[in-house]
Specification:
About 25% of the residues lie in helices and about 30% in strands. By secondary structure, the chain is α/β, with parallel strands linked by helices. The longest helix is centred in the middle third of the chain and has 16 residues, at about 80-95.
Length: about 240
């Protein structure tokens, strides 16, 4: 039986990185052929995670995989996001046989509405979704990540969480987990925080980087730009190599 070709939704953070790692541990079942990412040209960064594109491209290099960037506007209403994804799927259909895939993988863990949204968007497209880390207990998975020597920088802190500015720009490590306020998911699955991975078992070599400047930016309460603004905290990723 041939392995199923897969493209992985790559947020640049730990959950998508771990989902890719899980797939690569099953080469008899899955053939990971590339990663795809939404980027916001307005900021020249990965959407949500705020990872600089230069770091994103280094991640792809360390993974040894093709990277497909999907530009989206800012702010980005759902209609614009969905249209961009449909254009990307059409692009995937036209890739050479050794690069294309009809299965896409996501690193979601337990939010049913997000999973249903992703599956609904793929209905009728000829593509299907898989969720390699779905249902993994997040506290246990966080420890597994750390034990594997995964290294990640906390690049964004949600203004609607219990986390404040002091959590932005920290390393995702044991001390960070111990400092999380009660009720915060240890992997930030509810959107409390986002990360950028710079080392781990999915890379062939680490990315030399450290947390950079921390800034507060007004962001829309809702993805479509409605509901006014709140301040979100972001940390840059400073590369220590050319």
């Amino acid at each position: 039986m041939n392995a199923t070709p897969v493209l992985v939704s790559w947020s640049s953070g730990k959950d998508s990185a771990w989902a890719l790692h899980v797939l690569r541990q099953q080469p008899e079942r899955y053939d990971v052929r590339g990663i795809f990412t939404t980027v916001t040209p307005h900021f020249d960064r990965v959407a949500i995670q705020a990872t600089p594109r230069r770091v994103l491209r280094l991640q792809a290099d360390r993974l040894g995989l093709p990277l497909y960037e999907i530009p989206i506007p800012y702010p980005c209403p759902n209609e614009a996001y969905e249209a961009a994804m449909l254009q990307f799927l059409e692009r995937v259909r036209n890739l050479p046989d050794d690069l294309t895939a009809e299965t896409v993988a996501f690193g979601d863990l337990f939010l049913e509405d997000i999973r249903e949204y992703r599956e609904s968007n793929l209905n009728g497209t000829g593509f299907n979704a898989i969720f390699p880390v779905w249902g993994s207990p997040t506290a246990e998975l966080a420890q597994t990540m750390l034990e594997s020597n995964l290294k990640a920088i906390v690049t964004a802190v949600s203004p609607t969480s219990q986390l404040d500015r002091s959590f932005a720009g920290r390393w995702f490590d044991q001390l960070f987990l111990e400092d999380l306020p009660e009720g915060t998911d240890p992997l930030g699955e509810n959107g409390e925080f986002h990360t950028c991975v710079v080392d781990g078992p999915m890379f062939d070599q680490p990315i030399a980087a450290r947390p950079g400047e921390i800034v507060g930016r007004p962001v829309s309460r809702n993805h479509d730009g409605s509901g006014g603004t709140v301040t979100a905290w972001y940390a840059d990723v400073e590369l220590l190599e050319s």
